[in-house]
Amino acid sequence: MKFVLALALSLVIFSQALAESIVIYIRDDVYDDYVSFLNGRDVLSISDFSGKTIRRDVVDMIIAQQALTLGGFEHSFSYAPGKVNFRNTKMLELGQLLISFDSYWLNDANAMREHLYVSDAVIRQGEYIAGIYTTPKNKDVLSISKLEDLSAFSAVSTPKWRTDWLTLSNLPIKELVREDEWLSMARMVNMQWVDFMLMPFHSTADRSFTLESIKLVPVPNVAIALYDSRHFVISKKHPYGEIAFHAIQRGLKQLRAQKKIVAAYQQARFFLPRDEIKILNETSSN
User: Fold this and answer.
1) Is 67 a residue whose pLDDT tops 90?
2) DSSP label at residue 279
3) N or C terminus of the chain with fewer C-beta within 10 Å?
4) Minimum mean pLDDT among 8-17, 62-71, 136-145: which range?
5) What residues pair up with 154 in beta bridges, in sequence order?
6) The dihedral of CA 44, 266, 124, 100: what is its sign?
7) What pLDDT sits at residue 2?
8) How many CB atoms sit inside 10 A of residue 176's CB?
């Protein structure tokens, strides 16, 4: 009888734990790199963001969770990886997803403020520079050294990423091709159907990006600045939305005061020393 009662109590506790775990939908390649980087460590214990599989998306995931916990949010998370992209935005608007652990450009977030809370900036205006990524086979693109050189080449992006699309539209490129799925963009560049795409710098020794049969590398010593800030967005319709928003705000303020946010992106080699790279579209006002 005692065994039966103990088993029943265990099942109740297990069911409550499951109920308190909030499901986060996330792109599968980001999730794989996240799991690989953690390597069994508690996400809240991470203070060194250097490693082989660290990337901007993974830093975002870790900072969001640390900020939420610092701010008093007590619920745990479980993950549903898959080929997700803009579906997440609709789920956020409907309250089916609490938060995007992949930060949003402010331009994109502002368009959805009716449905979403927008956190303080995790990547501030002027901090984001991207690499010009192409296949190692495209030697012409890899020889780009100044802004005018872009006029011979095509790029791929989506207008759903307002800041990326606007940035590329303002560059003197030959053609801007629309593709709404990120993985399809990478494949198009890999197959040389399009010359390049903008990507955050990766932490590998040569800053290359590899996924399955795709390998992309950045043009050496140059970058493109994206003049916008990035923020976490939280659903106003989710039952825990307001609680999570206030918690992440408190946590981000603590992390910012401790200078841990900038340090994390620097250790991940996403923030690069400006004297080591030439920003092709740098303006006097930024």
Assistant:
1) yes
2) E
3) N
4) 8-17
5) 175
6) negative
7) 44
8) 15
30-to-27, 37, 64 alpha-carbon distances in Å: 6, 10, 15
* Lookup: tokens for 46: 């991470």
CA angle 180, 108, 207 (to 5 degrees): 65
Residue type, 77: F
pLDDT, mean over the chain: 89
Nearest to 59 by CA among 73, 47, 70, 71: 47
What are the CB-based long-range contacts (under 8 Å, 24+) for 108-113? 108/160, 108/161, 108/162, 108/163, 109/231, 109/233, 111/162, 112/233
As given in the structure block, the two tokens for residue 106 are: 């402010």
Q: Which residues pair with 132 in a beta bridge?
A: 198
182 DSSP 8-state letter: H
Cβ atoms of 215 and 222 within 8 Å: the answer is: no
- Give residue for tokens 């190692």: 136
Q: Measured between alpha carbons, how far is 77 from 74 in angstroms, rounded to an integer?
A: 10
Confidence of residue 84 (pLDDT cuts 50, 70, 90): low
User: Among 199, 176, 197, which residue's Cα sits nearest to residue 185?
Assistant: 197
- Residue 29's pLDDT is 86
Rg (CA), the chain: 20
H helix or E strand, kind and range, residue 262: helix 260-267
Residue 175 dihedral angles phi and psi, to the nearest 5°:
-155, 140
- Exposed/middle/buried for residue 233 (C-beta within 10 Å: 0-12, 13-18, 19+): buried
Predicted confidence at residue 282, as pLDDT, reads 85
| pLDDT greater than 60 at residue 4 | no
Q: Which two tokens stand for residue 174?
A: 């030959």
In whole angstroms, give the CA distance from residue 62 to residue 83: 21
